[in-house]
Specification:
233 residues; mainly alpha; 0% strand
Length: 233
């Protein structure tokens, strides 16, 4: 069992998505610990510096994510015909926001390192706003799917449906609830990183940013591991 778990961990870390999830969790975990520990010097300062470097690492690696996102958007298109129209519309808008997010972030990064002569802050703001829009659309899509699943569960309780089908629906409900929690945590941080004056922008203490990011990262790792286990089964 230990060998299987180690093999699964190694296999996950060998993929780009798996390694990004691990780096993301470590990044926010370092920020949470560094901000929660007393004193800016010593270990707390080192943890915060490590968090900043890990965040920069993820930004650089996202330079290569445009084509993967484009392939996903093209493969989804306008969505399958049998899918709910509202879910399809929200999914398409979410894909558009995610697709536009990458070039805005790339321009902000290029301006920061001096490759292009432009103010980086406006591009960071645009990329963060697009990320927030994508998260909000994802939450609305999950709420719509959750509503449909709850209605199906009610219908299954009224008729003689198999326990396996009810168990599958409950698993889908749990997955959507976790997705809502994950996206809500990320959306809270995204709003915090917007210019001051919009909702709670700029008002979160560093430990709260680290906590929300850690929660979101752990949920993402859990969902990815559940998906890998279901595929293996």
């Amino acid at each position: 069992m230990a060998a299987g778990a180690l093999g699964g961990l190694v296999a996950a870390l060998e993929t780009h998505r798996g390694r990004d999830r691990a780096v993301r969790a470590l990044c926010y975990g370092c920020q949470l610990a560094g901000a929660a520990l007393p004193g800016p010097a010593g270990l707390p300062g080192g943890l915060l510096a490590a968090s900043a470097q890990l965040s920069s690492c993820r930004t650089a690696l996202r330079l290569f994510d445009d084509l993967a996102m484009l392939r996903h958007s093209c493969s989804y298109g306008l969505g399958p015909e049998g899918e709910d129209a509202l879910v399809r519309g929200l999914s398409v808008l979410c894909n558009v926001a995610n697709q536009l997010y990458y070039p805005c972030e790339h321009l902000a990064w290029a301006a920061d390192v001096g490759i292009v002569r432009a103010g980086s802050q406006k591009w960071w703001t645009r990329s963060t706003a697009l990320w927030g829009c994508a998260l909000l659309l994802g939450i609305l899509r999950s709420l719509r799917i959750l509503f449909q699943l709850r209605r199906k569960l009610s219908q299954h309780k009224c008729c003689t449906s198999s326990p396996q089908s009810q168990q599958k629906l409950r698993a889908q409900v749990r997955a959507e609830v976790l997705s809502i929690l994950m996206d809500t945590a990320d959306l809270s941080n995204a709003i915090h990183w917007l210019p001051p004056g919009f909702l709670w922008a700029g008002r979160f203490p560093p430990w709260l940013v680290g906590l929300l990011g850690t929660i979101s990262s752990l949920i993402g790792i859990y969902q990815a591991s559940r998906g890998a286990n279901s595929e293996a089964a």
